[in-house]
Amino acid sequence: SCLGNPNARTPRLDAMAGAGTRFTQCHSQPVCTPTRVQIMTGRCNSRNYWAFGSLHPKELTFGHLLDAAGYATCIAGKWQLSGRGDRFPGTHPNRSGFDEWCLWEVDEQTGGSRYWSPTIKANGTLIPNTEGKFGPDIFCNYLLDFISRNKAQPFFAYYPMALTHGPTH
Fold first, then answer.
1. Distance CA 49, CA 54 (A)
2. Beta carbons of 103 and 85 less than 8 angstroms apart
3. 168: phi > 0 → left, psi -120 to 50 → alpha, else beta; which?
4. Does residue 66 contact residue 100 with C-beta atoms inside 8 Å?
5. What does the alpha-carbon distance between residue 127 and residue 120 come to, in Å, rounded to a whole number?
């Protein structure tokens, strides 16, 4: 309701919007990887994009800024920014300002399924026993645990979801 919907009653979200920072405009690309690069850096792709699947290692992200400001930072979901070989090296979430991470396609071990029985790593370790589990549930549970552990201090949780891709589930 803080955005003007007269039918929505969202008192907790309204309180968060009143006490925090509201971002009311965002402009990005209609393709997943360039969009994540643009959102994380706050810069147009004409200024930061150098190869699909690569976040330039020298790019400054909101993770860096929030980490430097004392926030606990976490990302869970889709990464796909670790680079494409020597010509276009990318970067890793822990070198992009994130203290903790739970991600699909963060390296060669995690390029399998993102949905059912996914290949996901959390802080460098392949998550075991994912047979029959749903990737987005794993990401959400990881974020909820992070929020629970950090609720007494400033924190930032970023969820670039894997659900926005085909096949649609």
1. 8
2. no
3. beta
4. no
5. 6
d(CA 57, CA 37): 12
Residue 17 has pLDDT above 60, yes or no: yes
CA angle 44–50–53, rounded 5-degree value: 100
Strand (E) or helix (H) holding 18: helix 11-19
Tokens 């690569």 correspond to 54
> 71: which 2 tokens?
């926030």
Instruction: Summarize pLDDT for 91-146 with one digit per residue, the tens.
Output: 889 899 999 999 998 888 787 888 888 999 999 999 999 999 999 999 999 999 99
pLDDT band at 2 (very low <50, low <70, confident <90, very high): confident
